[in-house]
């Protein structure tokens, strides 16, 4: 039995190594982008494993590395600050030192201190609270999994009625992601997602879905309506991968045929960094992790 386990581990390692060489040897990636999650900077004292002030130094090092590797753009998966709008400017000012554009989605912590969500989106130069953009024959869908949440200023709007429905559904299914740090996407955003995927499938594009809250594997950190999102994307073969933040320790699993990566948060630990560079090839996606961020090699079917 021990020999069998050894052979299985060896096979996985060799397969991963071979796949990395196959994707990267003697060929340049079609797309290269930086990946950052949960910077969570705050001008406040350390609490536990969260060294809030240290995030600026880590981000500076991250930016230097991403510029050196000539990424075409960087994706921020949310929670650039921990608790105050006043802390956003120092982070945004640092991100301006990147040689390429930054595409943001928001995290639950980003909403603290804001009474108008539009002010937050403007601070981050977001075109809308959820949106997509194209690079080559790839469509990048930036979901906002904090659209429906107790902290995202939905009181008195049509979105308010959708929150208790999500929470009741979680309770009836005896799951534990009905936490006050989680949010979900509205019925309108869900329909928008479906429309985006239908258009991408029709036009022969490949899709990468990005979000703050993980969609899978199911934990207490996933989006409030994670299952509805999964039920939507699983019907489309154009969806090649889902990448999320929020759960600082990271995770990985396949939902049916879709690889779902939860990338590690920069905020954790005193000095060890966490960020990644994603290379997309014709037949594979390679996430190279730095510091605490894990690396993944994913064949594209």
Task: Describe this protein's structure.
With 301 residues, the protein is an alpha/beta fold. It has a single domain, classed as 4-Layer Sandwich (Purple Acid Phosphatase, chain A, domain 2). It is 29% helix and 21% strand. The strands form 2 sheets. The protein has a 6-stranded mixed β-sheet with strand order 3-2-1-10-11-12, with helices on one face. Strands 4-5-6-7-9-8 form a 6-stranded mixed β-sheet, covered by helices on one side. Helix 2 packs parallel to helix 3 and helix 6 packs parallel to helix 7. It is globular. The protein starts with a helix and ends with a strand. The relative contact order is 0.16. About 4% of the residues have low confidence.
Short description:
The chain is of the alpha/beta class and 301 residues long. Helices cover 29% and strands 21% of the residues. The chain has a single domain, classed as 4-Layer Sandwich (Purple Acid Phosphatase, chain A, domain 2), CATH 3.60.21.10.
Can you give keywords for this protein?
21% strand, 301 residues, Metallo-depent_PP-like, Purple Acid Phosphatase, chain A, domain 2, ADP-ribose diphosphatase activity, alpha/beta, six-stranded mixed beta sheet, single chain, CDP-glycerol diphosphatase activity, manganese ion binding, 29% helix
């Amino acid at each position: 039995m021990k020999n069998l386990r050894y052979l299985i581990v060896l096979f996985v390692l060799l397969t991963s190594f071979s796949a990395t060489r196959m994707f990267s040897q003697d060929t340049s990636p079609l797309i290269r982008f930086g990946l950052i999650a949960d910077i969570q900077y705050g001008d406040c004292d350390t609490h536990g494993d969260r060294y809030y002030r240290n995030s600026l130094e880590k981000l500076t090092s991250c930016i230097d590395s991403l510029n050196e590797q000539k990424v075409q753009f960087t994706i921020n998966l949310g929670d650039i600050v921990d608790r105050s709008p006043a802390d956003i400017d120092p982070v945004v000012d640092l991100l301006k030192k990147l040689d390429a554009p930054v595409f943001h989605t928001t995290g639950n912590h980003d909403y603290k201190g804001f009474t108008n969500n539009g002010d937050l989106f403007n601070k981050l130069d977001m075109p809308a609270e959820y949106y997509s953009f194209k690079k080559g024959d790839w469509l990048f869908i930036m979901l906002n999994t904090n659209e429906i949440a107790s902290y995202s200023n939905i009181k008195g709007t049509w979105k308010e009625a959708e929150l208790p429905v999500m929470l009741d559904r979680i309770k009836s299914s005896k799951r534990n992601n009905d936490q006050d740090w989680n949010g979900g996407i509205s019925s309108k955003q869900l329909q928008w997602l479906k429309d985006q995927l239908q258009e991408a499938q029709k036009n022969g594009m490949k899709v990468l879905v990005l979000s703050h809250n993980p969609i899978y594997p199911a934990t207490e950190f996933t989006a409030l309506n994670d299952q509805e999102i999964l039920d939507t994307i699983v019907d489309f073969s154009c969806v090649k991968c889902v990448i999320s933040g929020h759960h600082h320790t990271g995770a990985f699993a396949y939902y049916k045929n879709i690889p779902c990566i939860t990338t590690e948060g920069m905020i954790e630990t005193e000095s060890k960094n966490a960020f990644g560079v994603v290379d997309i090839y014709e037949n594979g996606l390679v996430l190279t992790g730095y510091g605490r961020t894990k690396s993944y090699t994913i064949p594209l079917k």
